[in-house]
TrEMBL record:
Its EC number is 4.1.2.14. Belongs to the KHG/KDPG aldolase family. Homotrimer. InterPro entries: Aldlse_KDPG_KHG, Aldolase_TIM, KDPG/KHG_AS_1, KDPG/KHG_AS_2. Keywords: Carbohydrate metabolism, Lyase, Schiff base. It comes from Streptacidiphilus monticola. This is 2-dehydro-3-deoxy-phosphogluconate aldolase. Pathway: Carbohydrate acid metabolism; 2-dehydro-3-deoxy-D-gluconate degradation; D-glyceraldehyde 3-phosphate and pyruvate from 2-dehydro-3-deoxy-D-gluconate: step 2/2.
């Protein structure tokens, strides 16, 4: 349900999508994001360090941290044990949907087509990740899907730049926008958390109407 995500987002409309190769980065990164005004983040489970990084980031008192790139139900369960408050997958998976329902954790399935969106709605998932948004047609795709599915709420992610973000956020069916541009590998690798704080603050500023 989109209300679950509204509550988790608590006013913020940007979800940084984060890939960490070392859990040691997690705490300073969480602090930098929080200092920049970010309230919600997705940690992708793409590296051996991901689960530990998720656990460490989830400890931050001012961030709602979810797990991304979750590919099956067992992974969803481990992510929730590690502190994930929501679960995101690049596509829709009924096993993850069932497990998240029984765990009482919101599930944000990736959808790219009208058929996937119909499936998500049937499962009661009115909030979806539109992925990969820019590559599939960007705002034109969003407009085309939002028109027939008036109950759907979208979190477009994939290829979205800070310049494009405000255009998505202006759409009434968009809850928030996700993207990796706030936590680029170059800044993470060099430990430039001040640079990340600045990117976060700029994104938060641009996200305001
Ligand atoms: C994701 O999993 O959401 C994407 O990798 C984020 O897309 P981006 O890197 O193009 O912002």
């Amino acid at each position: 349900m989109s209300r679950e995500f509204d509550a988790l987002l608590s006013g913020t409309r940007i979800i940084p999508v984060i890939t960490l190769h070392s859990a040691a980065s997690a705490q300073p990164l969480a602090q930098a994001l929080s200092d920049g005004g970010i309230r919600c983040a997705e940690v992708t489970l793409r590296t051996p360090a991901s689960e530990d990084a998720l656990r460490a980031m989830a400890e931050h008192p001012d961030l709602v941290v979810g797990a991304g790139t979750v590919l099956d139900a067992a992974q969803a369960e481990r992510a929730v044990e590690a502190g994930a408050r929501f679960v995101v997958s690049p596509g829709l998976d009924t096993g993850i949907a069932d497990r998240c329902r029984s765990l009482g954790v919101p599930y944000l399935p990736g959808t790219a087509t009208a058929g996937e969106l119909m499936h998500a709605l049937k499962l009661g998932r009115t909030a979806v990740k539109l992925f990969p948004a820019e590559q599939l047609g960007g705002l034109d795709l969003l407009n085309a899907l939002a028109a027939p599915f008036t109950q759907a709420r979208f979190i477009p992610t994939g290829g979205i730049s800070p310049e494009r973000m405000p255009h998505y956020l202006a759409h009434p069916a968009v809850l928030a926008v996700g993207g990796s541009w706030i936590t680029p590998a170059a800044l993470l690798d060099s430990g430039d958390y001040d640079g990340i704080r600045r990117l976060a603050a700029q994104a938060v500023e641009r996200s305001r109407p």
